[in-house]
Design brief:
alpha/beta, Rossmann fold, seven-stranded parallel beta sheet, NAD(P)-bd_dom_sf, SDR_fam
Length: 245
């Protein structure tokens, strides 16, 4: 019997951690998965990867800007319209380094210092990473509180679903299980062009390597599962030991 008999919604699913998480839900037995991102082509690739992992999965792809309140609400509404409920919300949409590097001929050349970054860059990063996580969490929790618990959560007081935020210090307070995954340097399409700049941070961690998207996805699935039913508002660090060293 799968730990994930319900409906999963993953933002930032077009690549990296979001894609690995969506595929992992399918591998672990979740058969109803909604994937969301601004990158429509990336969503198509993720859908193919899910279908290769498990051919009987039902998938809905939703092009969404998580910094836009109306689009986030529509994302959850479309998920519920397609599948009838929402049980696992994973908010993995995020951006960072590409907006904070100077470019020359399309190639990243050096990190921007704080006084060199524009307010537009600051607003876009916070709109996705912070506002987007909050908007998504709010919409997901609102839906979860309307529905009866799954058999996997029944008997666990107050349980209506699971919300996991990625790359955010946002602790969700509500009656759904919630946690935050705080990755260290992870090898994704977003970070791979910047590995030379990130080498000092990588070397600090005892494991002395970047993490993989799958290693973060495995942690996310634990927090989303009923095995983490008493984990609430926790920030779980997945960084190869960077913060302890």
């Amino acid at each position: 019997m799968t730990l994930f008999p319900g409906v999963a919604l993953i933002t930032g699913a077009a690549s990296g951690i979001g894609r690995a998480t969506a595929v992992s839900f399918a591998v672990e037995g979740c058969r109803k998965i909604a994937i969301a991102d601004l990158n429509a082509a990336g969503l198509e690739e993720t859908q193919k990867a899910i279908q290769e992992a498990a051919k009987d999965v039902q998938i809905v792809a939703i092009e969404t800007d998580v910094s836009d309140e109306a689009q986030v609400n529509r994302m959850v509404e479309k998920t519920v319209a397609e599948f009838g409920r929402l049980d696992y919300g994973v908010n993995a949409a995020g951006t960072s380094h590409p907006l904070l590097f100077l470019k020359k001929g399309g190639i990243l050349t050096k990190p921007l210092k704080s006084h060199e970054a524009s307010s537009a860059e600051f607003d876009r990063i916070n709109g996705i990473n912070y506002r987007g996580a909050w908007l998504s969490s709010r919409a997901e929790i609102t839906q979860m509180l309307k529905q009866e618990p799954l058999p996997t959560h029944d008997g666990r007081p107050g349980s209506r679903g699971s919300v996991v935020n990625v790359a955010s210090q946002l602790g969700v307070v509500g009656r759904s299980e919630a946690g935050t995954v705080c990755p260290g340097v992870i090898s994704t399409p977003m970070t791979q062009p910047n590995m030379s700049f990130l080498a000092p941070a990588i070397s600090i961690a005892p494991m002395n390597r970047p993490g993989t998207a799958q290693e973060v996805a495995d942690t996310i699935l634990f927090l989303a599962s009923p095995k983490a039913s008493f984990v609430q508002g926790s920030a779980l660090v997945v960084d190869g030991g960077y913060t302890i060293n």
